Amino acid sequence: MSSQRKKIDLRRITRRSTLGVLGIGIPSGIWAAGIEPDQLSLTRKEIILPRWPKALDGFTIAQLTDIHYRPGTDDGMIAKLHEALAKEKPDLITLTGDFVIDDPSSLPELCRELKGISAPQGVIASPGNHDRWHCSTSNLRKEIEGTGMTYLQNQATKLHIKGENVFINGLDSIWAGRPAPARAWKGHKKNEPVIALVHEPDPFDDLHLARPLDLQLSGHTHGGQCRVPLIGYAPAKVKFGRKFIYGHFHKGDSQLFVGRGIGTVGLRVRFACPPELVILTLRSASS
Ligand SMILES: [Fe+2]
């Protein structure tokens, strides 16, 4: 083959490759920026807990996390959440932090939007690193409790249902707050199942050894926010969210569920990792 012919072939291959990359890249970019961030997905998961009371078999928890509210842009997503929660009717709703991105004025706006979210056993929230970086504790408590939710920052509450006690606590953000497990577990009585709201998932490794912990609910990672389709690899890692990026994990008698969350940080893009409302159904091992 002459060198002139080789050059022409190379140019053709290069042109086709470029068109191929653009052909995949441009639609993917439009999808990631313009479509997927508004696609609310629903994940249902059954979790068998060894210490969960038989009387509470089938108890449902909606887990919401990482709303990272962008006023004016995310209102459609909040409306979808209201609709999905009204349809699912969970027994309890939990929010595991990161209500804001970096603007504290978005918190009262979000709280106005969240008003009306309710469940028979209540709505319980704990803080995330962005909340603790950009909002004061007093504002977080005032705004979140103003919606009728319970706000737990190194604190606990107990549910009393069908003669059973369930201990629910919320730890302060590991990254941006002052986590105090001794305070968060204060008042826990042996045999009470513990559900811990902990924004960052990686402390599960230590917490499950240090404290009674049946189920930890976390977010923080956004499931990676953009993943490689089919293989699910998430290239972007975040501090305190490197070991448990998404899904259900076991360590001893303790379990962890990490949700993908609702919102985004940085560019408002998601790819192969849509916003997620999680409905967990807790099962008793003795049923
Ligand atoms: Fe987040």
Set down the secondary structure blueprint:
Elements: H1 3-35, E1 41-49, E2 59-64, H2 75-88, E3 92-95, H3 106-114, E4 123-125, H4 129-134, H5 137-146, E5 150-151, E6 155-161, E7 164-170, H6 181-184, E8 194-197, H7 204-210, E9 215-218, E10 247-251, E11 254-258, E12 276-284
Parallel strand pairs: 1-12, 2-3, 3-4, 4-5, 7-8, 8-9, 9-11
Antiparallel strand pairs: 2-12, 6-7, 10-11
The structure holds fe (ii) ion.
Describe the fold and architecture.
The structure is a single chain. Helix content is 29%, strand content 23%. It has 287 residues and is of the alpha/beta class. The model has no long low-confidence stretch (mean pLDDT 92). It has a single domain (39-284), classed as Purple Acid Phosphatase, chain A, domain 2 (4-Layer Sandwich), CATH 3.60.21.10. Fe (ii) ion is lined by residues 66, 68, 98, 128, 130, 220, 222, 265.
Short note summarizing the structure:
This protein is an alpha/beta fold and 287 residues long.
List the defining traits of the structure above.
287 residues; alpha/beta; 7 helices; binds fe (ii) ion
Coarse shape: globular
The DSSP helix count reads 7
Total domain count:
1
Give Rg in angstroms.
22 Å
**pLDDT averaged over residues:** 92
Structural class: alpha/beta
- Tell me the total number of β-strands: 12
**SSE pattern, N- to C-terminal:** HEEHEHEHHEEEHEHEEEE
CATH hierarchy, class: Alpha Beta
Bound ligands, named by name, code or SMILES = fe (ii) ion
Strand content: 15-25%
